[in-house]
Amino acid sequence: MKRFLLAAALACAAAASVPAVVQAQPPAAVRQAPLSRVLAMLAQRWPGKQLNTQMGESGGRPTYVIRWQMAKDGRVVEFVVDAESGQLLGGPTG
């Protein structure tokens, strides 16, 4: 009986000294609208070509910041598009 109590006490002490393993949850995957789809949408409304695209943020949401050269007059404009939904947030009206 003493051996059983001693073994139980040792097992409890060993378990108490081992820290619990905490598994981190991976961050929620952010789904982005394909850039090719966004560029096709821009080209339909404002014929031209992409000069540069960078990732940005607006209101805590990821955005595409796209520099675009208009085919009509060569003017360079900037569009801001929500990278998750593909919704146009800012740019020239047309």
Task: Summarize the structure in words.
By secondary structure, the protein is α+β, with helices and mostly antiparallel strands. It has a domain at 31-94: Nuclear Transport Factor 2, Chain: A. The protein contains two helices and four strands, in the order ααββββ. The chain has helices at 2-17, 35-45; strands spanning 48-58, 61-70, 76-82, 88-90. The chain has a four-stranded antiparallel sheet with strand order 1-2-3-4, with helices on one face. It starts with a helix and ends with a strand.
Secondary structure: elements and pairs:
Layout lengths: L1 H16 L17 H11 L2 E11 L2 E10 L5 E7 L5 E3 L4
Antiparallel strand pairs: 1-2, 2-3, 3-4
Kindly report how far apart the N and C termini lie.
Answer: 88 Å
Helix/strand order, N-terminal first: HHEEEE
CATH topology of one domain: Nuclear Transport Factor 2, Chain: A
**How many separate helices?**
2
Q: What oligomeric assembly is this protein in?
A: single chain
Estimate percent helicity. 25-40%
Average predicted confidence as pLDDT: 81
Please state how the strands of the largest beta sheet are arranged side by side. 1-2-3-4
What share of residues are in beta strands? 25-35%
Q: Assign the structural class, choosing from mainly alpha, mainly beta, alpha/beta, alpha+beta, or little secondary structure.
A: alpha+beta
The major beta sheet can be summarized as: 4 strands, antiparallel
Uncertain stretches: none
